[in-house]
Amino acid sequence: MAASSAAGGETPAACRNPYLSYKSQTHFELCDKAAAVAQGAPPGEVRNSAKRTDNIRDMEQKVIVTLDNATCHPPTLNDIDDLIQVIFSLKSHAINRGDVKKLNKELSDDEKALNSSRCMGLAPIHAAVKAQNIEILRELLNKKALISTRNLFGNTALHIAAQSGWHKGIKELLQYGASPDKMTDLPPLLNEVVGETPLHIAVRKGDLQSVALMLRKEPDLTLCDTRQCNLLHLAAKSHSLPIITRLLQETQCRKMICEKNWVGNSALHTTLGLKSLKENEDCKVLEVVKALIDAGAEVNSINNSGECPLYRAAFAHLPEIVELLLKRNADPTTLTLSNQSVIHAACASGCSESLKHLLSSDCTSNYISHIDNDGNEPFHLAVKSCSISCCEVLLDNGDHLTKTDYQGITRFSLILEHLPSATQLIRSLLDKHISITKTMRHDPDFKVTFDYSPLLAPKTKRLQCSVISELSLSKHEVLFNHPLIESFLRTKWRSISVTFYIYVAVYCFFLIMHTIFVLITYGTPLKENNSEDSLGVIQNSSNLNNSSDLVHKELICADSVWCNYTTTLTYLRIVYAFMYILIIIPSSLIIMTNIKKYMRSWEIYIKIVAYTTSFYVVFSPNLVSSSTILIAERPVAAVSALFSWAVLMMQLSRLPALGVYILMFTHVAKSIMKMLVAFSTLIIGFAVSFQILYRDQSVFDNFLHSFVKILMMMIGEINYIEMAASDTNATNNVTVIFGSFFLMIFLFYVTVLMTNLLIGVAVHDVPVLLQEGNIRHLSKRASFLVAYEKALLYFQKNTFFPKSILNLLARPCYIHPKKEIFPNKYRKNKILTVPLETIEEAIAICNRPANDENISVDCGDEDPSKLFKTFQVLYFKDKKVLDTNIKQIANECKKYSSIMENIQLLHEKMDHQETLICNFIASQRYNSQSGPVLSKNI
């Protein structure tokens, strides 16, 4: 190995590490030490010198490789640590084993080895402290080992003992003159490591016994580490109340209580670190804060980031300390350099209790909507922390669902889009605004009050349905079923339903007129037209057959209806145009209010098809031309009629009596369409197969006819007699067999199985369909109400519209913020404004116990990860409540045990008194000579 080392050449001086320049010397020393260790194995060990020598050589090789690498680039802390472990295991073999004789022999062989720190700065005294061997340490100290010797990291033996918490070693080193004021002498490569004294280490680790031993030497208590942290900073960081109490007894420490470290943190700041505390450590921190404040710590001190202790306590989720600081006159209006208030900190940590303490102060009401430098308000941070309770506290203390941020996003939108448990929060908020009287349930004066203040926007916005509008655009439409929202919608609908009925009446008039027009124009029987113009057109048409009889039966000429009534058609088109304006404008307003929602719905596409086809049918230029054949108008008219009546069905879905069932129909239709798409491949396969097998029948002569026939056969319209007759005419028996076999498969898989499956889908879970139909029905009403209000706002901004008409239309639009219902009083109109089922549900909500929290979450279409986050938030919330209850129970148990001890002592005293009284009576009886005297003495 020596040869290999020499062959490598000498390292240039520029690349040589000053701490590793003794590589070759260390190598030979290690070889000698290894041989000595191998020869001096104790009797109790397995003496395998060959194996031991191989292990030592492996260690040697590892040392040399590390040293070779270190000469080219500075070693990292991991390299140094690995190297120290290898060298330490070789050099301090005798020390680790506690072999004093072997140590004395090694030291006698090499007198300089006692204080030598050649091997990476490790001296024997360091090895003894690391091994925590008091006998070896005393032996080294008796041999005048230097206590001030430092290792590679600039630590003395006392530093190492304080780090490991070895109290015997600390006591021994202090007796031999070790100084607790020695600062770590860090090498240049480790300038980022914190330099500290042994006393700093003991205080930082919370080692009270080590601190007490060092304080006996009267160290300099004003010394700070390299980050300007004094003893109080380090003690506060460890949350050690006994050490802080002991330090505060010193006058020097009490004077330093307001000093700040390199980032401007005082001892009180350091106690309230922003990192999460360990479990059950809140009480320790509270006691430490009390001790520091009682000793004169400034509660309104500001660090370099502008953070006060109150801000850090709120951010660290410490509500008890927040309450304490507020009682000690902490200022809750201070702002950080990022322009955040203490309310921001409480919301960011999700601590609702701290937020309640902060908002109980009158001076913090103006900071509920305060914006920091990143544009975040407290409500934004509460939503980001997924804290339902913080959002609820903010909304209860002046914030509102309709308030907007600088981007125009409302609080309600933030909740619906970013809070996983939005449904639970909104339900909890709305439940608080339903109240009932304390009278009996069946008393005539029993009253249910609905407070619509969380739903109504401020007067400046003049749009009462803003919350309802955002709810209809979200995936949380299940909230429409809440009694407060449902009663709000029904009350508002009742006031403006006349407008909707007028709109439906106008559309019905248009639909009847359009239906009559289509029937007159395209629904009359075909008539032959022998005029010269018509015959000329027929002869010149490239799409017609040569047979004139067939041509006259397939075509309709325009002059059969409107050619002679052009004036009437003109007036009719004017009426159509006026009706189009009355119909399309409200529909467009409704669509524009919920454009995102309607673009995902099939309703808008049905309306587009109905309006465009009807417009084309009525205003087609071919209607007044006697020489034009109406080929495209007939199918377009059929489409127009179908889709126009389908639009009327969608309009009727907003009616109370019909809406639920129509929306149930649409839901079932969507499910069946999905199933038909899923099984379409099977239907297409049967259609092709039957077209091949029964090609002689007219219903299977092409694919389209075959496909339609298969759909008819699905409902049982098989017409087996005709199919069997075609089999008798067939000449190929194999075709007949395959046809019968395919027909049997079709009967089982399609007619029986698939048809019954479709029927099951249509009728399954009727209660769920009814509930969902009610929600969709309320959503339809909400979209109409929002469109109505937005139309009013638009017309109010434009002065051309008469104000008298606007006031007439706007008067029923705005409802009172509170609605009182007496369900048991006599009414002339027996129909309640709010359904009885909704009132009963509201009463049930009010009768729910206060501690009965509804932790059920409506899944809907939410992401499972969001739901998991919701349950995680609920879990930690319940866990914290449970921990608080456990602490209270533990305190009560302590009180109970103390009471029982007092009762036990009282029993013992009573027994003792009873014994004394009995002895006294016995002595009196023994000494008395007469009964009266005894009774008198008693």
Automatic annotation (TrEMBL):
GO MF annotation terms: monoatomic ion channel activity
Residue spans of the ANK repeats: 120-152, 153-185, 194-226, 305-337, 374-406
Domain Ion transport: 501-765
SUPFAM superfamilies in alphabetical order: Ankyrin repeat (SSF48403)
Record organism: Meganyctiphanes norvegica (Northern krill)
Subcellular location(s) per record: Membrane
Principal subcellular localization: membrane
Lineage: Eukaryota, Metazoa, Ecdysozoa, Arthropoda, Crustacea
Designated name of the protein: Ion transport domain-containing protein
